[in-house]
# Entry
Amino acid sequence: MKSILTLGFFMIVLNAVYAQNGTKNFLDQNYIELTGSAEQEVIPDRIYIQITISEKDKKGQDSVEYQEQQMLQALQKIDSALTKHISILSYSSTYIRYFFKKSEVTKTKKYELLLKDPLQLAPVFSALDELEVSDVHIVKLDHSEIKKLQQETKLKAIMAAQEKAKNYAKAIHQSIGRALFIKELDALIMQNAVPETNVVLRKESFYSDKRDISCPTIQLKKIMVTAKVLTRFALN
# Structure
């Protein structure tokens, strides 16, 4: 009984405060509710490539260690920094036993290479092709300032909602007041799946500093960042 009396007294005091300040409860105000959305595309400046080398890839069955050394030397010729951005994802060996010939152990090694310049993509693919490394593909696209882009997109979505509210209110000869409620509806979506690429690999010397006709043509899928918000503005 005491708890009920206390709650009732609190509600009376709260209503008295609202009455003194002349402030209306949120539900008592006229408002307009709508969603705002925004999106922007950016060219990725972080390209993640997965490379797999195996002793089975070549007729001579060069060891994984030898192929790795060749790969690192080729990357070093393209850009000395590339060897700092390659890491090992997995290293496995498979024992194969035959009845009529010598059993063998096949080793496989997977790497992830980070490219910070889209122009490096074609030389890297071409170099690996020269080394007969066939299992190479792009696994992820990203951007170095993706957090900043996400924040910018959120703000654009809010401003879009405000502009829409103004236009709706104007159509009925009214105006909007302050924002009463803002809520993100969708998480920001970054489309960084395996992109559609058009890489023309050429056998010409790509170690030259000259960017002439031998330079491959590359088309990378852009990253899409989107945001959507639910808003309520006071309607005057």
